[in-house]
Design brief:
homodimer, 226 residues, alpha+beta, Pnp Oxidase, Chain A, 2 domains, globular
Chain lengths: 226, 226
């Protein structure tokens, strides 16, 4: 909640130090922010009875705190307060098709955030965190749709995770075996890019005739996501 | 490795029992297979020093065993043999834009697999598992590209996870507040679908002139992924 800016470099900790594929690791906070801003779906890892659970959920980031959504009744979030979590956000950008199977891989951008989350209980922060989360997934909807009532706010579980300890990995570009012995095989090699895009809005069948999507939704159709 | 078919229903265990949003939970093995077959990226959760780590990686499924890729040097996989893991596969299908912020959500298909993985050491099984994994991500490449050498096989870490204990969640369709009091607000509501698609193949800049993508790669351009 302070205004002190986070350092531009991510700290190297035992958990975030890149042990392998070091060229794919980044310690720039700007890369972390880009990856988080490009999405809204994360995989939340928690330890329950000694075993990991990985749950897909939605998040919003303000560059300092990651707000992660969950239900009060959810087993994973009930277990999380005070216990460490790992939140991972991954954007898959393409298949790396090399000359050898061994050099095959994927182009991707991934951020892994470690920490002990704080359950958000203050109604004002909960409202602000939910707004962030809603606007990250569906920009414009916080102002367009009916906002949460006090009762709905209370029924919503929100975790706040500091963005202090994080690790970023990015792979881009062509396969790595273009200058190795396998180049002589004469095989095609390259990248098959993968893109996620929004389609045309599909109206709720229960909607009365004549209600059209507002501009902030209509404008998103056929644009890239992530 | 036996041929006994897995039961058509997924077993309800302490971990897979759906506690909330029960209508989104499925115990049909066919749904699990569909979700696994539709992708190749998973999030692997392991416990390292008491804290969870969630690592994106690729997998291949034969309907009985999930083969998960990783490096021998990878901290998470080094920790995994003999210890429980959770592998989650999620396909995001769209944003559910309701009349109220509270009813907003996502359409998705998600599978969560629990178990203690077995490191694959037998060269024959490793080859078969890698083939499954390669063909799931890049159909046709196992036969087209140079296959792994003995040395490369040894340098590849592969985990095998039984598909016995799994949990599936699926949400499809319109928002849920079309017949509630918020319908009177007169707001547009519906779904903004999200689709991932393959783009045109991008040749490795080091490729000599005249080497064109083989049909199995070219045919994939502009088709849906997931």
């Amino acid at each position: 909640m302070t205004d002190r800016p986070l350092p531009a470099s991510l700290p190297e900790t035992e958990r975030t130090r890149h042990r392998r594929l070091r060229d794919q690791g980044s310690l720039e906070r700007a890369r972390l922010d880009e990856i988080l801003d490009a999405g809204f779906l994360c995989h939340l890892g928690v330890v329950v009875d000694g075993a990991p659970m990985v749950v897909p959920t939605v998040y919003g980031s303000d560059g300092r705190t990651l707000y992660v959504h969950g239900s009060v009744a959810s087993r994973s979030l009930a277990a999380a307060p005070g216990t460490p979590v790992c939140v991972t956000v991954t954007h898959l950008d393409g298949l790396v098709l090399a000359r050898s199977v061994f050099e095959h891989g994927v182009n991707y951008r991934s951020a892994m955030i470690h920490g002990v989350p704080r359950p958000v209980t203050d109604p004002e922060e909960k409202q602000a965190g939910l707004r962030r989360l809603t606007e990250q997934a569906a920009p414009g909807q916080w102002d367009y749709a009916r906002r949460p009532s006090r009762k709905e706010l209370a029924a919503t579980a929100l975790l706040a995770l500091s963005l202090e300890e994080a690790s970023v990995k990015i792979r881009t570009g062509a396969p790595d075996d273009g200058d190795g012995p396998d180049a002589a095989l004469g095989l095609w090699a390259g990248v098959l890019p993968l893109t996620a895009a929004w389609g045309a809005p599909e109206a709720d069948p229960l909607l009365p005739d004549g209600v059209t999507p507002p501009p902030h939704i209509a404008a998103r159709a056929h644009t890239r996501a992530g």
